[in-house]
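Exercise: predict the structure of this protein bound to adenosine-5'-diphosphate.
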Amino acid sequence: MFEKVLIANRGEIALRVHRACQEMGIRTVAVHSTADADAMHVRLADESVCIGPAPARNSYLNIPAIIAAAEITGAEAVHPGYGFLSENAQFAEIVEAHGLTFIGPTPDHIRLMGDKIEAKRAARELGLPLVPGTDGPVTDEAEAMKIAREIGFPVLVKAAAGGGGRGMKVAESAEGLREALQTARAEAKAAFGSDAVYLEKYLANPRHIEIQILCDTFGTVVHLGERDCSLQRRHQKVLEEAPSPAIDAADRARMGEIVANAMRKLGYRGVGTVEFLYENGEFYFIEMNTRLQVEHPITEAITGIDLVREQIRVAAGQPLGFTQDDVRVQGHAIECRINAENSETFAPSPGLVDTYHAPGGLGVRVDSGLYQGYRIPPYYDSLIAKLVVHGRNRNECIMRLRRALEEYVVGGIDTTLPLHQRIARHPDFVDGVYDIRWLEALVANRG
Ligand code: ADP
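Solution:
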């Protein structure tokens, strides 16, 4: 096992990785920008190295500085967390080229799944059902028009290099397609440096269902059930739950097995998530994430498996030590992503946290680097905390969520806690009847 791991990230996920390492007797190295000198992950880590100024491109994306930090401190492995360099195949290669272990899949698998067009091709070969759409990139307007008519409007123009819900444009009709192509291309070029786009049928009222997988390097592949991430705003997840209220045990077992077989064929290692849209009883692959996800704690809650610990064990060459038969889904879990944003206008709200009280009690977990007196810097993602609750069943989980949200106090800044309170009390949510458009409508109706 490693003696020292460098955590190439910040915020709650850096803390999350630190916690797993501590429990395994592994020492940690935090890296940070000048803006994060007071961050909790820096305070808790055994060692810390400043890797550059506030803008992420000069610090958390600064590969030479991160490698130098690993070499100076004698770290043997690098955990990338999510976001930043976590899906950068070149970073994984550079880490390995320096004789360090990248805690994640192979660079080839990161590259394959990072290009959504290639990912869909691979998914088809691996036997996963796809959303109807183009086989490759669309470059020509006339060709796009022809394909869109074949698939049927509305269609979605998506960036091959897309992520975070960006570079996606809906075209309702032939007239709208030209503009959608142009804007999606321009957005994709600006955000991801590539203007390659493709078309997909725009599904009307799907749910977002994703399956967590975990693989060692000895051919053991397990799936850990699904997460329902349909509550989204601007294609970004807001609240997730596991299991999905829309999936039964038979579907879970069937899709889990299809995905596990695909990963076995691929020879995948570590953790990964295969994302689907689910409509009228059918699953449609949209993409695969080759990293730990923000919402991984709800899977941990219902399976009792520490995903970060397993990631580190697999990276160190250890076998999983359990099989599919050992995996049990128990109870129900919900995660709320709490952002430093106004809960009605969604305007960012960085600044001083002058009061802080986190909820606790049975079945309540808070993953956050917040503390009283902490100043949230304006340079990074607005996610400041994840509230994860677990109950023996969905009803208990929702009751527990409501009381945990009531207890939670974050003073001095605006947060999305009020939005979560609204969702947790809404009859549609309580009944589990919502799709990927439901939250957008709720937010719009506020006026
Ligand atoms: P990203 O990588 O940017 O997160 P995804 O492909 O994972 O993009 O899609 C994000 C979200 O966008 C989905 O959860 C869903 O809400 C919506 N979406 C993606 N593809 C489609 C589609 N073909 N039809 C309808 N909604 C879609």
